[in-house]
Amino acid sequence: MPLASSSQAAAVGSSVTNTQFAAAAQVLARKNLIIGTYDPAITTITDDTPALVTSPEDVGATFGFGFMLHRLAVQSFAGSGGGETWVIPQVEVAGNQAEGTITYSTAATANGTISLYIA
């Protein structure tokens, strides 16, 4: 059935959205995690167990001043401005000294520099 040219359509619409404007960003609080080694002379530390800390002095008193966790905490607190910080102490593992041999197969023909990168 075709529409006649005299047909008319009418509509009335309305919409309201109640939204609270916030000028500040809605960001979750940042949490820091520091993983490092501690003073092996301290026997009360449980390896691989997260601990909440409040300052570099707290880390130093708990895990040893001057050890990796303490040095990382000093820089972390200085750069982050605070916030919730956790540490995971790792035991210092004794390793083997790396060794290898480099053999030059030809005699030098000119002065130069050899750059050696070991990964």
Order of helices and strands: EEHHE
In whole angstroms, the N-to-C terminal distance is 81 Å
Beta-strand content: 5-15%
Low-confidence stretches: none
Strand runs, count:
3
The geometry reads as flat
Radius of gyration: 32 Å
DSSP helix fraction: 10-25%
Average of per-residue pLDDT values: 84
> Helix count?
2
Summarize the structure in words.
The protein is of the alpha+beta class. The protein has a domain of 60 residues. It is 18% helix and 14% strand. It contains two helices and three strands. A three-stranded mixed beta sheet has the order 1-3-2, covered by helices on one side. α1 packs antiparallel against α2. The radius of gyration is 32 Å and the shape is flat. The mean pLDDT is 84.
Properties at a glance:
three-stranded mixed β-sheet; 119 residues; flat; alpha+beta; 3 strands; 2 helices
What's the short version?
By secondary structure, the protein is of the alpha+beta class.
What's the structural blueprint in terms of helices and strands?
Elements: E1 31-37, E2 51-53, H1 56-63, H2 68-80, E3 84-90
Parallel strand pairs: 1-3
Antiparallel strand pairs: 2-3
Helix pairs in contact: 1-2
